[in-house]
Amino acid sequence: MTKLFPLPLFLLPGGRAKLRIFEPRYLRLVRECTANGEGFVLAMMQGQRLYKYGTLVDIVDFETLPDGLLGITIAGRQRVEIMSTEQAPDKLWLGDIRTLHDWPHDDYVDNTDDEVQARIATSLKHVFAAHPDHAEQYEQPHFEDVTWACQRWLEILPLTSAQKQWFIAQDSADEAKQFIHQLLEEHVE
Predict the structure, then answer these.
(1) Contact 151/14 with Cβ under 8 angstroms?
(2) Can you tell me the distance from the alpha carbon of 184 to that of 170, in angstroms, rounded to the nearest whole number?
(3) Is the model's pTM score more than 0.85?
(4) Counting Cβ atoms within 10 Å, is residue 55 exposed (0-12), middle (13-18) or buried (19+)?
(5) Phi first, then psi: what are they for 83, rounded to 5°?
(6) What is the mean pLDDT of residues 159-172?
(7) 10 Å Cβ neighbour count for 131?
(8) What is the pLDDT of residues 122-132, one digit of tens each?
(9) pLDDT band with cut points at 50, 70 and 90 for residue 113
(10) Are 50 and 165 in contact (CB under 8 A)?
(11) Which 8-state DSSP code applies to residue 102?
(12) 130, 124 Cβ separation under 8 angstroms
């Protein structure tokens, strides 16, 4: 069974985030995942139950935080469907998962006339410039990859958990691209 980490954090493949680890069950999760070279699933909670979809993530960095706690950096690897769950005696969530195909990647060239893709990428560049703490997690951002840009937008937009679950369940970034473009259009007006 795969280890599950329930958090309100939403991360998609290619996304990165920093976590503070202090509960014994999650210290065990980090220790075992690191020792076995495996990832864990970042999952969202709905009451006392886990939502159906999550993201398999890898631990890519460690640090001791100023308060002495363990800090880890995680990177999204693959969308997953959580088929069943249970809790270990220490309350660590475990689950059977099914991996989902990655969203097809959709690159564009800056000199093309694809206004939608260019607007999504350009607006995300502005967000990264305005929030350097967030941007520094991405050594090589892939703004030219519209799928990557849409995934980063979905991570930072203030969407409900149900909306995020709907997007993560989709087979491509097409719905996200239309949604984000519409939001950007409304913001300009």
Answers:
(1) yes
(2) 21
(3) yes
(4) buried
(5) -85, -40
(6) 94
(7) 11
(8) 999 999 999 99
(9) very low
(10) no
(11) P
(12) no
